[in-house]
Amino acid sequence: MITGATAALEGGARLLQYRDKGAAPARRERLALQLRGLCARHGCRFIVNDDVELAIAIEADGVHLGRGDGSVRRARERLGERAIIGVSCSGSIERAVEAQAEGASYVAFGRFYPSSTKPDAPPAQIETLRQVRGLIGLPVCAIGGITADNAAPLIEAGADMIAAVEGIFGAADIRAEAARYAALFHRPFSAVP
Prior knowledge:
By secondary structure, the protein is of the alpha/beta class.
């Protein structure tokens, strides 16, 4: 896990989320601490998926909350004003508006494509990204089955960030694949194949 994360950071990842729902608490804390240190050395922000208490324990930069992971307000109270708090919205613009009102730092929509990490998540529509841009002032993240080859339409529609698990960590060359994603944010979309 650490080797793959290092390669992703060297390739240009700017935010790393620790997501390990099945590990024992001691293992989760140990790995999260290692990843937090790695991110600090690479100038990358580090957040924890679904676990405010773990984020506090390891002094992470923040947390990402799904629908059943507690309130944004409570997380903000526990983590402080400077913490990053991301919120999964699936395809719900209303949830994004609520998350902004509650103090979220960014909102995430998806799954946009078939996904091995979220196979049962309901699909979201690219049009949702366009619609939400006029309603909220937060950064927008796109999630779900996104590869460097299919990400451009999502970015063009308004995604400020792309979340990728299998697309990066399933690649033969993680560093090179992370660099392909990063390059999408540094060149005009007409140049994207």
